[in-house]
DNA sequence: AAGTGCTTCAACCGCCATACT
DNA sequence: CAGTATGGCGGTTGAAGCACT
C-alpha cells in the first residue's frame, strides 16, 4: 500500500506543518502520494492528507459548534447516519473528524443518560425515537463513474442487489446535495445547504433520501436533541 | 500541591471504491 | 478482465489538558 517503512508517526511538529503547507501552496491539493517526497516529509501520504484536511487547511473553522451547527448535525445524522464526510460537507469550515468527534462526545453523554433512565424507570428508553423508527441511510457514496448519469438503469446490478441499490441512493443523495459526480470524486461543496434545502429535496426527489417512512417531522425536535 | 479520573481531539488503522495499466 | 495504485471514509486509540478530590 503505502510502502512506508519507518515513516514518522504521532503528533506533527511545527516544522513539519510548515513543510506541508509550503508544499500544498506550491503544488496544490491532490497527488497525495507525491506530497511526502515533495515536502521532504518522512510521513505517509495518508498522514499528510489528514493533517492538511483536518488542521492546516485555511478553510477550517475553529472553536465551538454553534447552536445552528449542532441542530444541523443532529438532523443530518438522523437522515444520513454516520456519514461524517457528508454531514461535514453541509457545515462550512468543519471537517468530518470534527463532526465525528463532536458527535461521539455527545453520544457518550446521551447514552449514559439513557442508561440512567433505564435504571430508574425500567425499559422506557427502549422506546426512544431513534431506535424505534428511523433507519439512517447507510451506504457510502464514493466517487462516481463517468458513465454513471447515463448508464444506470438497465445494466445496473443495483436493481437486484439491495446493497447496490442503497449505494445508488446514497450517490443520488450526494448529487442532490450539489456534489457533481461527473467531475471526479465526491467533494464537499463550497456552499452550505439549509434545512429548507433538505426538505425541498425530499419533496422533489421522492424516494431518494427516504429509507422507510421519513417525513420532515422526523427532523423536528421539541426538546433538546441531546436528551432522551 | 499531588494524584486520579475524565474529556477532548489529533492521528492512526483497516477497509472499500475507483482509476489506471 | 485482473491486478495494482491511489484516494477517501468511518472506527478506534492514545496523549494532552482539565476538573475534581
UniProtKB/TrEMBL annotation:
Q: Where in the cell is it found?
A: Nucleus
Keyword vocabulary terms for this entry:
Activator, DNA-binding, Nucleus, Repeat, Transcription, Transcription regulation
Has keyword Repeat? yes
Which PROSITE patterns does this UniProt record tie to the protein? HTH_MYB, MYB_LIKE
| Sequence ranges assigned to domain HTH myb-type in this UniProt record | 4-60, 61-111
Renumbered to this chain, the Basic and acidic residues biased-composition regions fall at: 112-133
- List all Polar residues biased stretches: 147-162
Q: What is its main location?
A: nucleus
- Disordered, as annotated region: 103-164
Domain annotation Myb-like: ranges: 4-56, 57-107
GO MF annotation terms: DNA binding
Give Gene Ontology CC terms: nucleus
Full protein name? MYB114-like protein
This protein's species is Aristolochia praevenosa
Q: Which gene encodes it?
A: MYB114L
Amino acid at each position: 500500500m503505502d510502502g512506508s517503512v519507518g515513516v514518522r508517526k504521532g503528533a506533527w511538529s511545527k516544522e513539519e506543518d510548515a513543510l506541508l503547507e509550503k508544499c500544498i501552496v506550491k503544488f496544490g491539493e491532490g497527488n497525495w502520494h507525491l506530497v511526502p517526497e515533495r515536502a521532504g516529509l518522512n510521513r505517509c501520504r495518508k498522514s499528510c492528507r489528514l493533517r492538511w484536511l483536518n488542521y492546516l487547511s485555511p478553510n477550517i473553522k475553529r472553536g465551538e459548534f454553534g447552536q445552528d451547527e449542532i441542530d444541523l448535525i443532529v438532523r443530518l445524522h438522523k437522515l444520513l447516519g454516520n456519514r461524517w464526510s457528508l454531514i461535514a460537507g453541509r457545515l462550512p469550515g468543519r471537517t468530518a473528524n470534527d463532526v465525528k468527534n463532536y458527535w461521539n462526545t455527545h453520544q457518550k453523554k446521551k447514552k449514559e443518560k439513557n442508561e440512567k433512565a433505564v435504571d430508574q424507570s425500567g425499559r422506557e428508553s427502549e422506546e426512544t425515537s431513534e431506535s424505534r423508527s428511523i433507519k439512517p441511510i447507510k451506504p457510502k457514496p464514493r466517487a462516481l463513474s463517468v458513465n454513471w448519469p447515463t448508464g444506470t438503469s438497465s445494466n445496473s446490478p443495483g436493481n437486484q442487489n439491495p446493497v447496490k441499490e442503497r449505494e445508488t441512493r446514497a450517490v443520488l443523495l450526494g448529487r442532490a446535495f450539489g456534489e457533481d459526480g461527473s467531475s471526479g470524486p465526491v467533494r464537499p461543496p463550497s456552499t452550505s445547504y439549509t434545512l429548507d434545502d433538505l426538505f425541498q429535496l425530499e419533496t422533489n426527489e421522492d424516494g431518494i433520501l427516504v429509507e422507510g417512512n421519513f417525513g420532515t417531522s422526523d427532523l423536528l425536535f421539541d426538546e433538546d436533541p441531546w436528551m432522551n
